[in-house]
Give the backbone structure.
Amino acid sequence: EVQLVQSGAEVKKPGESLKISCKGSGYSFTSYWIGWVRQMPGKGLEWMGIIYPGDSDTRYSPSFQGQVTISADKSISTAYLQWSSLKASDTAMYYCARHDSGAFDIWGQGTMVTVSS
Amino acid sequence: DIQLTQSPSFLSASVGDRVTITCRASQGISSYLAWYQQKPGKAPKLLIYAASTLQSGVPSRFSGSGSGTEFTLTISSLQPEDFATYYCQQLNSYLPLTFGGGTKVEIK
């Protein structure tokens, strides 16, 4: 079965760092782009960026450039999204998704990040 | 950035109704448009890609059309399980791969 499994919910304080993960299985992880999508509470979907695990080519939305870092470790079929200094406004659900045939066809279950003092 | 404007943002409909959602792009995106369904507490699910191609396993009551700047998602006969929020997404340009604002379909 093709799937993306994300790491569990996180509760952090402002200023802390965080790295969440997205592990692919059931397909060739290095052959498909993986994107990250933010959904703030009660709001719509926002595309953050995308990475090609085969060569780590990464593109960011201008809105998220410099705010987060997207990376991947192809040896363990895992993509990452990380923050160096969290803010309360980073509180959201974060999804990873596989890009194929001009769409995101497989989605992770989501990781809820809560940032609160 | 390419902006996507969905309309309506909210609609109330009954089971069996024909429902149409529109997505307009701020510039031409050929057929690089996808539609997703999201239910509360769940990840989005791909319904349509390349504007009109039905994703495997998606019921045939869902259809998509359009190219350039105007696109539609149609549900031919609304079923109870179709009450959800629907999003369009453009994949013509990576900078960025924008989503529309969403259309919430609720039971009348």
